[in-house]
Design goal:
alpha/beta; 11 helices; 8 strands; 35% helix; single chain
Length: 322
């Protein structure tokens, strides 16, 4: 994987103050916390131009035509349907401007709108879409399998074409993501039926055992090498709960034993080097649960690494592993 020198980019920020997909309130404050932590300034200091589109206004609930037994198992269904449709429309518009979008969340159900918009954009542009889901959870439940009813746990199922969730997008064009093009890293909390579905559908998963055994560099390099040679837009969806809660406590779904500070930065640095990343979600930040903004500041630092900040500039091939 060759190093790509940092190039100035035009970046668009879009705040999505959505919390109805999660079980704990507070994620609606995430976008403004990321701004307060200095995320726009970090990007500007790296030479990128930044256009901040502000936060989406909370939409009115809509009727979603799920089967009655499925609807009964989805918490805040009308709100999530309204948000998914609004986010999709606005994200698709931002993508059409040619900027690289960063979607500031908000709980992980927002990705049903952002990634579906990216998939639609890629289909129109003749590009393939791959998704890197950095998360402690698989988010592959369906209305039939969810133990909680929280819809942030159904995002990947929706995006890969789960029929029971298809009505969330209304009548908008929908291009499902191929399950084999979804890569999850950081897993350590998966429901039993979710686990079976991940295997059945062939989603590429790297849990914390794999990170411990092989290291994140091997896992990220393997993914990048699989995508090389394809006309790929890589969408990164970064959930703060992927990181160890001692480092990032500001999330309602903490799971012990997460990704370390250096592992998280290494992932971002390697993704930058790949030159494949075309869009980014930052999700599940809950400032109400944070400690003096430490989670928000870490996420701003990780974004800087994704956009080219390093301790030293590396030359192509420098310290290449044997």
């Amino acid at each position: 994987m060759e190093h790509n020198p940092r190039k100035a980019q035009s970046v668009s920020l879009l705040g999505i103050p959505l919390e109805q997909g999660a079980g704990v309130p507070g994620a609606l404050m995430g976008p403004d916390a990321l701004r307060t932590a200095g995320l726009p300034a970090v990007l500007k200091n790296l030479g990128h131009s930044v256009r901040d589109h502000g936060n989406l206004a909370v939409p009115a609930d809509v009727e979603v035509a799920l089967a009655p037994e499925d609807a009964a198992r989805c918490r805040n269904l009308g709100a999530i349907g309204a948000w998914t449709q609004l986010i999709h429309d606005r994200a698709f518009e931002v993508l059409g401007n040619g900027d690289m979008p960063i979607f500031l969340g908000g709980d992980h159900s927002l990705s049903m709108g952002t990634v579906s918009a990216v998939a639609r954009h890629c289909a129109a542009a003749g590009k393939e879409l791959a998704v890197l889901w950095i998360d402690a959870h698989a988010d592959f439940n369906t209305p039939a399998t969810t133990p909680s009813g929280n819809m942030h746990g159904m995002s990947i199922a929706f995006l890969t074409g789960e029929p029971s969730l298809r009505p969330l997008l209304g009548g908008r064009p929908f291009t499902p993501v191929k399950p084999a093009d979804v890569h999850i890293i950081g897993l350590r909390s998966v429901d039993p039926e979710e686990s079976d579905r991940l295997i059945e559908y062939g989603v590429d998963c790297a849990d914390m055992r794999m990170i411990d055994e092989f290291g994140v560099s091997v896992l990220v390099r393997r993914m990048v090498e699989e995508l090389e040679g394809r006309n790929v837009h890589l969408h990164v969806s970064l959930d703060v709960d992927s990181i160890d809660p001692a480092l990032a406590p500001g999330v309602g779904t903490t799971v012990p034993g997460g990704i370390t500070y250096r592992e998280a930065h290494l992932i971002m640095e390697m993704l930058h080097d790949s030159g494949m990343v075309g869009s980014l979600d930052i999700v599940e930040l809950n400032p109400f649960l944070d400690e003096r903004g430490k989670s928000a500041m870490l996420l701003a630092e990780l974004t800087a690494s994704l956009f080219g900040r390093t301790v030293l500039d590396r030359r192509p091939g420098q310290l290449r592993a044997a």
